[in-house]
Automatic annotation (TrEMBL):
Protein species of origin: Sporosarcina contaminans
Superkingdom in the source lineage: Bacteria
Gene3D superfamilies from the UniProt entry: 3.30.160.250
Entry-linked InterPro entries: HicB-like, TTHA1013/TTHA0281-like
SUPFAM superfamilies tied to this protein: TTHA1013/TTHA0281-like
Higher taxonomy: Bacteria, Bacillati, Bacillota, Bacilli, Bacillales
UniProt domain HicB-like antitoxin of toxin-antitoxin system: residue ranges: 6-108
Protein name as annotated: Type II toxin-antitoxin system HicB family antitoxin
Length: 137
C-alpha cells in the first residue's frame, strides 16, 4: 500500500477568525483550510491524499517528508503529521460509477424489463467478458 506521512503547518491566522489554513512545506500548492481543528485535520488528509494521488498518476517523484526540526514556523503556527493512503483513493476513483447513455430497440428493452434484467450489471458483465477481464471490481 502507498502510505505517506507528511508534516502539515496549521496556521490559525492573525485576523481573529476561527479556523486554520493548512499547508504542506514539502508539497507546494497543497493547501486547504478548516473552520475548526477537526475539520482542518479532515480536510488536510483529503487534500494530501488527492495531491499525492495526482503526483503518482503523473509519474512525479514524491519528495521525502521534512524533519520537523527543519521546518520554520511563523508565530502561532504548529505542526501536525498527516497520514495519507493513496491506494484507497485510487480504488475509489477506479471503481467510481460512470453514467453511460445507450440506445436499444424498444422491443428488446421491453423484453429485458419483463425479465427483470439489471441493465448496468449485464453491461458490466458483457464488457468484462468481451475485454477478457477476470476481476469482480
Amino acid at each position: 500500500m502507498a502510505k505517506y506521512l507528511f508534516p502539515a503547518v496549521f496556521d490559525p491566522g492573525t485576523d481573529g477568525s476561527e479556523g486554520f489554513t493548512v499547508t504542506f512545506p514539502d508539497l507546494p500548492g497543497c493547501i486547504t483550510e478548516g473552520v475548526d481543528m477537526d475539520e482542518a485535520i479532515h480536510m488536510a488528509k483529503d487534500a494530501l491524499e488527492g495531491f499525492l494521488y495526482g503526483m503518482e498518476e503523473d509519474g512525479e517523484e514524491i519528495p521525502a517528508p521534512s524533519h520537523p526540526n527543519n521546518i520554520h514556523l511563523a508565530k502561532g503556527c504548529f505542526l501536525v503529521f498527516i497520514e495519507a493512503w493513496t491506494d484507497y483513493i485510487r480504488d475509489e476513483f477506479e471503481n467510481k460509477a460512470v453514467k453511460k447513455t445507450l440506445t436499444i430497440p424498444k422491443w428488446l428493452n421491453d423484453a429485458a424489463e419483463n425479465e427483470g434484467i439489471n441493465f448496468s450489471q449485464l453491461l458490466q458483465f458483457a464488457l468484462k467478458n468481451r475485454l477478457g477481464i477476470r476481476r469482480d471490481h
